[in-house]
Amino acid sequence: xxxxxxxxxxxxxxxxxxxxxxxxxxxxxxxxxxxxxxxxxxxxxxxxxxxxxxxxxxxxxxxxxxxxxxxxxxxxxxxxxxxxxxxxxxxxxxxxxxxxxxxxxxxxxxxxxxxxxx
Length: 118
Prior knowledge:
The protein is an alpha+beta fold. The chain has one domain. It contains two helices and four strands; from the N terminus they run βαβββα. It has a four-stranded antiparallel β-sheet, with helices on one face. The longest helix has 25 residues. The radius of gyration is 20 Å and the shape is elongated. The relative contact order is 0.23.
């Protein structure tokens, strides 16, 4: 069973089903948050909000088997927003931004030192 985040008062509840549990190294998490982590799992799950199937993700320190059921709350106005949202994609976004910044600075340094100036 997953550790459910604090439910939002008044949000409807649904039963979510784990569809994937993917192991990822802690490098992205360490880069994004400055906290070393040996590993974590990215959990993907589905839940129904009304007649629409939604997919969500969250990070977990523990493996969660495919097919595991757990309760999830969702925003009735924007049902794709759910109570398990602990920003699983944020580390990737920050990692991508760091790589782009590094590549830009490296390119600028190479152009400056090897000269485009005559």
